[in-house]
Design goal:
S-adenosyl-L-methionine; methyltransferase; UbiG_MeTrfase; 2-polyprenyl-6-hydroxyphenol methylase activity; 25% strand; 240 residues; EC 2.1.1.64; 8-stranded mixed sheet; alpha/beta; 8 strands
């Protein structure tokens, strides 16, 4: 049997949100606000890494992408529109069912699978795992599995909350406390600080290439920033 980093209670928690995952005012509203910020960062990193034309509508044409912890496909669908051949995996079968249903009839061919990354075969040019590593049982093993599926010259992009009092206040005390995020979504003890993440990446043979913060302000909402206190994105490649 393949060992897995999936925590069944986490899969059940997110699976229960499948019914309104695509509703921008539903239980996943915060993900809808996060998604454009993530996409802006991913597009920039893709353009920088592969030296693609910033005006191109299909910068990922000819590239394969694996989105781990894909939910109901919020990130998979735009990655496919950017030209990638996309595989999305999630531990919650309910979310994969919702992802397939939403994708159907939209002219997108996305390979959705209800499984953990450990069960995925092959290698991918781009691997994304957004707000996932803080929900797995063994972050180092999870990163190792991502690394083993990264194609030569490939790009790994992650996002996760920082382990700070500010992140706990905004993410758990306020966002969960006032119902903007379902209660029980986050466990502060699972949050990973950037320096700890850098050490984990190094352990599995990855080289950190870039880090950017996702910050919040009343005037701008969620946006890319040099401020890493709340949440951060990172880019890594295999160490040469």
């Amino acid at each position: 049997m393949v060992e897995t980093s999936i925590r069944p209670e986490e899969a059940a928690h997110f699976g229960a949100m499948a019914g309104d995952w695509w509703d921008p005012k539903g239980a996943s509203a915060m993900l809808h606000r996060l998604n454009p910020v993530r996409l802006g960062y991913i597009r920039d990193r893709v353009d920088q890494h592969w030296q693609t034309d910033e005006r191109s509508l299909k910068p990922l044409a000819g590239k394969s992408a694996l989105d781990v912890g894909c939910g109901a496909g919020l990130l998979c669908e735009p990655l496919a529109r950017l030209g990638a051949t996309v595989t999305g995996v999630d531990a919650a079968p309910e979310l994969i069912t919702a992802a397939r249903g939403h994708c159907k009839g939209r002219g997108l061919a996305i390979d959705y699978r209800a499984c953990g990354v450990e069960e995925v075969q092959g290698r991918y040019d781009l691997i994304t795992a957004m707000e996932v590593i803080e929900h797995v049982a063994a972050p180092a093993d999870f990163l190792r599995n991502l690394t083993e599926r990264l194609a030569p010259g490939g790009l790994l992009i992650l996002s996760t909350p920082n382990r700070t009092a500010w992140a706990r206040l905004l993410t758990i005390t306020l966002a969960e406390g006032f119902g903007q995020i379902p209660r029980g979504t986050h466990d502060y003890d699972q949050f990973i600080a950037p320096e700890q993440m850098a050490a984990l990446l190094d352990q599995v043979g990855l080289q950190l290439r870039d880090t950017a913060g996702i910050a919040f302000s009343p005037s701008r909402g969620l946006h890319l920033s040099d401020d890493l206190r709340l949440n951060y994105l990172l880019t890594a490649t295999a160490r040469s």
